[in-house]
Each structure stands twice: as C-alpha cells, then as structure tokens.
Amino acid sequence: MGEKVIATRADLSDRQHYRRKLQSCQEALERMLHEQRFDRPRAMMGLEIELNLADEQGLPLMRNEKVLAAIGSPDFQTELGQFNIEVNVAPHQLSGHVFEELREELDTGLRYADRRAAEAGARIIMVGVLPTLETVHTGRDSMSHNNRYSLLSDQIMAARGEDIALDIEGVEHLQLESVSMVAEAAATSLQLHLQVTPDRFAPVWNAAQAIAAVQVALGANAPFLFGRELWRETRPVLFQQACDTRSAELKAQGVRPITWFGERWVDSAPELFAENMRYFPALLPICDDEDPAKVLASGGVPRLGEMRLHNGTIYRWNRPVYDVTDGVPHLRVENRCLPAGPTVADILANAAFYYGLVRALAEQPRPIWTRLPFAHADRNFHTAARYGIDAVVQWPRPGRGSRGAPAAVPVVDLVLGELLPLAYQGLDEWGVLPADRDRYLGIIEQRCLRRTNGAAWQAATVHQLCERHGMDRATALATMTQRYMELMRAGEPVHNWPVG
Q1: Cβ-contact 217, 470 below 8 angstroms
Q2: Backbone phi, then psi, for 176, in 5-degree steps?
Q3: Adjacent-strand bridge partners of 179
Q4: pTM for the full model?
Q5: 1, 215, 229, 390: which could form a disulfide with 312 (CB 3.0–4.6 Å)?
Q6: Beta bridge partners of 49
Q7: Closest C-alpha to 338, from 196, 491, 480, 217
Q8: Alpha carbons 98 and 27: distance in angstroms, whole number
Q9: Among 97, 116, 180, 70, which Cα is nearest to 348's?
Q10: 314 contacts: CB under 8 Å, gap ≥ 6
Q11: CB contact set of 157 (below 8 Å; sequence gap of 6+)
C-alpha cells in the first residue's frame, strides 16, 4: 500500500465502479497467467523492516518526519505512527553470500540512519512492540501526516460503526474500551519477500502458511503492550483487534477479519486475490484510469492498481503480491508474520531459516499441507504467538506407527529434530554458500538450545529488574528498553544477551 492516496469521500457509485474494476483486474491477471506473460524464475528476495523511534531513555518519540528528512534516503519511508519509519532493502539474488551481503548493507544503512536520527533527537530501535509505549502515544494525533492513513482509519471506523476495543488475555489481561487505529502502529514487523513463478506460487504459499507458527515461536519479540505482559508475540492479536472492521454482530455471523490467517490451502495465486474480492468490501475504493483489458490488447502490462490497493488493505500473514518491474509482471509471496529485531544478525537468521525451509517443504514429494489440516496450522499460529519459544504445536509425525497424523510436539524439538535440517537442505538448493548457511542457521539452533529469543529476554529482564532491584513496572520497562538498544547496536544475537 505504498501509493499516495488522496482522501476523498467514497459514495455508492464509487464502490460499484471499484468492484467492476476489481473484476477487470482479476480477469486480466488470469489472462496473463494463461498466456504465460510472467517473469522467468530468478530466485529474488527482499526485506522490509519497520522501526521504532525512541529517545535515549527508551521513551517513544513522535518525530518521523524530522528523522526521515535527516536521513534523506528513499530507502526509508513513513509508517502509520509518528514513532515509526520503515526501511526497504533492494531485491537480492537468493544465492552465494547473500546473507553476508545483506548484513553489511543493513548494518551500514541502519547505523547511518541511527546517526542521522540522533541529530533529530531520536534513536532507532528494532523491536516487535516498543515496550515503553502507552495508550497516550497512540491517539489520532500520533498518526503520520499522510492522507492514506487518515482515510484508511476513517473507513475502518465507518465500517465498524463503533469504537475500537482491545481485549487481550495473556500473562496479564489488557482491556481498553476505546483506542484509535494508531494502536496498530505499535506492531512493527519484518517482511520477507520471495519472487516465484506462477506454478510455484501455491506450494511456496502453502509451505509458508504451514511454518508461520514456527517462525513466530522462534522469533517472538513483543511480550509487552501498554505496560502489560501479554502474549510472547502480541503483534498478531493486537493487529487483528486494532484493525477490525467488524462489529460484535458481524463477528457472531462469522464475517472474516481483514487481519486473517486464511481458511484453506490453495492451488494458485488467483484464488487468494479472488477471495479478497469476494469476502472483503473495499476500504479505499479509489480507481485509476487504466483499463486492464485494453492495456493487454495493446501488448502492454497492466498495473492492476485497484487489485493491488485492495490487496494492501487485507493483512494476511502470507500475502500474495502482484507487481511489475521493468515492464514485466511477477508474483511474490510476502511473509509478514515476524517481528522486527532484535539485531541484524537475528533478522537474517530468521530470513535464512524461512527461505531455506520454505524451499525444502515446497519441493517435498508428500507436501506438509497434505498431512497437516489447515485448522491445525491456524491454531498453531495463535499458540505460537501466545507462548513463543515454549509453544507446543501439532505437527505430522514420521513413521508408520503414527500414520503421519499430527501430534503435539514442542517447537524447539520440532526445529532441532526435523525442520532445521530441512532449512540447511533448502539453502543448499538455493545455492547459498555454506559459510552463510552455517552462521545464520547456527543462530536458530542456539536459540532453541538456550530457549531464548527477544521475548524471553525482555520478560526475564523486566522480572529481574522488578524482583531483584525493586523497580516498578514502568521504570523496569524503560530500563530494559535502554539496555535493549545498547545490545541491539552491539549486534550480538539475542541468545547471547545477558539478562538484566
């Protein structure tokens, strides 16, 4: 949803016209697939990282416009909250020393951005939820000055017809009767893109859905929200509730939320775009002048702007993406389930595990999605978000005695015993060099052996500060956040961080 949106009132005719344009986009997509117009396989991957802005005391700063002006790079862009920015990493070939190349690029770019942010009185922090955020930081006046955000917020509130409420029960219980959509900006993510050919889209998407729970369990980094200790990865439940367009009555009727895991395995990319059109009314029914059928008839490649805009307002944890680069269309799977941080090394370890594992699972002769009921994958995702690295999930077990039926298995055992070897295999198949493969998958292994990730470190540190040093919760959160920023800049992966 990177396009600039002009805030306008959407009336009935706008929505009818937009629905027709969506149908035209869908028909054009299916025709391009039938005519094999898509890009050849090139194993391209890319990253986006959402970042928080804080002062030296770890407290939120509403200063993204000044920070972005100081950074002065198109790679860094605005995000929903004034305490957020985003960095976009150019696509890379998924082979060779790609992860070390990315490490150098990210280290250089983020250190530069942090220095320039300091000139605006801010520091950059990579974390799933900034632990020191309070509800006062997420009012409408904390929204970035961008028309698309204000229009989207207005449309969500209009569709909902009542205030947004939060009710999250985890280690502690958070209940808020009224928050703005800016509460969603508390959730900052790592987004992993993988360009795929049309015939490989469904296997990759299905594999990504199957392992989303494991990704979240290993990478959890958001245990605190508005002063409460909640889920180990609070982002998913926060995102769903803060962006929910449904009233209580619509929820009772089974209307799907726009933050959605999905409900079935798929056979093609068009199925997901068709679901979006079928299930979700347009939040931003804004049309451009393109006629996709005429563009195709003239030999051109349509932008499919309405479909892309609509797709950008439906927050699947694995999102289908249609895009055009240098006049050639392509498809991507955008993996959106991971939090930002804690360090560049941790981010690249999460990326290496994902890209390796999704490759291996997508090419198995008996795919995981033929053995794991989709409902299990959905429940696994929420279990992993709640319990993090200590989660127990349902997974098909090998061996004749089990008949391959899903059984309960701790995530760390599943990773060490089955999934990590597959990730090694997948990276080998991508052509990633052994030094990169071993370094970053070794970080995943150590997280499992030590049962430590960002969420575990944050919670343990806050508990120690409260219990051993007598700090109140707010002081402990601020102290922990300061220490987090120091260790993040030092760059050692989180499993090596000392607690306290």
Answers
A1: no
A2: -135, 130
A3: 164
A4: 0.95
A5: 1
A6: 87, 190
A7: 217
A8: 37
A9: 97
A10: 258, 260, 276, 280
A11: 164, 181
Overall size of the chain counted in residues: 500
Question: How many Å apart are CA 416 and CA 494, to the nearest integer?
Answer: 18
Please, are residues 175 and 167 in contact by the beta-carbon 8 Å criterion? yes
Strand partners for 99: none
226: which 2 tokens?
């508005």
**Cα–Cα distance, 346 to 284 (Å, whole number):** 36
Structure-block tokens of residue 110: 């983020």
Tokens coding 369: 């999605």
Give me the long-range contacts of 12-15 (CB less than 8 A, separation at least 24).
Answer: 14/285, 14/286, 14/287, 15/281, 15/282, 15/285
- Return the biggest CA–CA distance within the chain: 72
Q: What CA–CA distance (Å, rounded) separates 219 from 215?
A: 6
Four-CA torsion 378, 383, 384, 385, nearest 10 degrees: 90
Whole-number Cα distances in Å, 473 to 240, 463, 476, 486: 26, 9, 5, 20
Asked if 420 and 360 touch (Cβ cutoff 8 Å), the reply is: no
Q: Mean pLDDT, 10 residues at a time, over the chain (500 residues)?
A: 47 81 97 92 93 97 97 96 96 97 97 96 97 95 89 88 93 94 95 97 98 98 98 97 92 94 97 96 90 96 96 96 95 98 98 98 96 98 98 87 80 98 98 98 98 98 97 98 98 96
* Residue showing tokens 């127990």: 392
DSSP string, 365-390: SS-GGGTS-HHHHHHHHHHHHHHGGG
Residue 170 in 3-state DSSP?
coil
Treating both helix axes as pointing N-terminal to C-terminal, what angle do 98-119 and 344-362 enclose, rounded to 10 degrees?
Answer: 140
Query: Nearest 5°: phi and psi at 466?
Result: -75, -45
Cβ contact 239:313 at 8 Å:
no
Tokens read off for 98: 């790609």
- How far is Cα 300 from Cα 103, in angstroms, rounded to an integer? 38
What pairs with residue 461 in β-bridges?
none
The tokens for 396 are 């098909």
* Amino acid at the residue 49: I
Tell me the torsion sign for CA atoms 106, 109, 113, 116: positive
Give the Cβ contact number of residue 397 at 10 Å: 17
E-only strand ranges, 346-469:
392-396, 406-410
CA 485, CA 56: separation in Å to the nearest integer?
A: 9
Q: Is 194 helix (H, G, I), strand (E, B) or coil?
A: strand
